[in-house]
Amino acid sequence: xxxxxxxxxxxxxxxxxxxxxxxxxxKFYSRLFAAHPELLDGLFSRSNQRNGTQxxxxxxxxxxxxxxxVNNPGTLPEAVLSRIAHxxxxxxxTESQYQVVYEHLFxxxxxxxxxxxxxxxxxxxxxVYWLMADALIKLEKGLYAAQANDRTWAxxxxxxxxxxxxxxxxxxxxxxxxxxxxxxxxxxxISVKVQLPDGLRQVRQYSLSGxxxxxxxxxxxxxxxxxxxxxxxxxxxxxxxLEISNPYGEITLKGGGGPVVLASAGIGCTPxxxxxxxxxxxxxxxxxxxxxxxSTLESWALRSQMTxxxxxxxxxxxxxxxxxxxxxxxxxxxxxxxxxxPADASLYLCGPLPFMKNIRNEAINxxxxxxxxxxxxxxxxxxxxx
Length: 386
Description:
Oligomer: single chain
Distance between the termini: 21 Å
Helix content: 40-55%
Strand order of the largest sheet: 4-3-6-1-2-5
Number of helices: 10
Largest sheet: 6 strands, antiparallel
Number of strands: 12
Structural class: alpha/beta
Radius of gyration: 22 Å
Strand content: 15-25%
């Protein structure tokens, strides 16, 4: 809870700090990596630093958190914090690293706002930071404690590498040592660490795309804009060892017997395919509507798996949108205005950010409450304020 002393200060300075935080965060990262270059090796994404999405993620999360504290006294933005905590846990973020971030972030704030910042302003924003950090630390400790082991990374052997549509590959892994294996929940993801040609290690999260449990199967698109997927596609072969994290992610199938709508675009079909597989494996009698959008039919990475699971469910329905027309598919981009959504449906959503924003808005306009719309964000989460 934000103190009575700090609330008016944050309320008064939020427009200024919010307008400047996009300039503050690049200075922060410059300071951070100058002091701790090791953080770029196996933790922070170099490609996300280059394209600016990491800076946007930090700026968005701090601004959204401060705005929530001002507008909703006595509460925390639990959904936003949960997404960040799961992502942090998949990278092995430690409590001590929050102090490192604080030191360099507030040095950047002092530099950028040198003409206007006062001890009172600095004190209020320090309170905001530690409210957010302490909440995340608590959540992350719980996530670590729930795992079957206390390791951030464990070795897994590539048991199979299979083409999955144009430009995508599915990797099936098996444990390479005796580390206890956490049972994954459909819809969760793992972090995968690889060494780049220049020697730097980089990490990317991938949703588990097949059966969950103690198996690990994920599907990657080669040209996803990062540096990890090309290495997986070009150099990793059957029998190689990969370092992967425990499974994380809270966008998992909720219990109950209500209708389920799985909406995805492109490689965003991976978590929805895992949820669909779990429904098919359990012989679920829930009403299931699968919606997917692709550029071409050949690009659909998990086409055979998803269509087979829809058929296994019997009462499930599949609707497909393609930018390049094909028999049986709708032409163009997905729109829920063309869909008869089941009453009381829960919507699970994954794909590019513009796609998710549009479908989420259409779902709300169609009468689905925001509390029943669950979405997963790949890469830095810059949709924090939604």
